[in-house]
Amino acid sequence: MRVVIDLNVILDVVQERQGLHASSGAVLQLVVEDTIQAVIPGHCLTTLYYITTKHRSKEHAEFFLDWMLKYFDVGIESITNFIRARSMQFTDFEDAVVASVAETEECHCIITRNIRDFKGSSIQALTPEEFLVQVS
Predict the structure, then answer these.
(1) 8 Å CB contact between 123 and 103
(2) H or E segment to which residue 71 belongs
């Protein structure tokens, strides 16, 4: 099963967000175990690096970036993706890009904390908890 994992789920783990860390960590564990194939849009890597440097340290950001590149595919963000994202008319352009990447990468779903932001997506959005129930 191929999925897009939205940045907010990864940040649950990086920032050790109380009440969210466990389920998001369980999703990432499925990636490590190769139970699911995970995609992250390319632009999320730069944001992840920046936030992790501010939240933890540069060393931790570099470690986590290397970890991401080892276990995640990086979704293509082409002009076609951006044009498609614009046509979706989402409130948040970044979410539209995530949805467009999910389509291009032929993903089963988008795992996110903000499922309502993906109402206009042709790819179903699930919270980490909903996804874990679905795959169990």
Answers:
(1) yes
(2) helix 58-71
pLDDT digits 0-9 by tens, 37-89: 999 999 999 999 999 999 889 999 999 999 999 999 999 889 999 999 999 98
Which two three-digit tokens encode residue 127?
């919270």
**DSSP string computed for 99-113:** HHHHHHTT-SEEE-S
Contact indicator for 104, 81 with CB cutoff of 8 Å: yes
Distance CA 17, CA 9 (A): 10
**CA geometry: angle 7, 13, 16, nearest 5 deg:** 125
How far is C-alpha 110 from the chain's CA centre? Answer: 7
Supply the pTM of this predicted model: 0.94
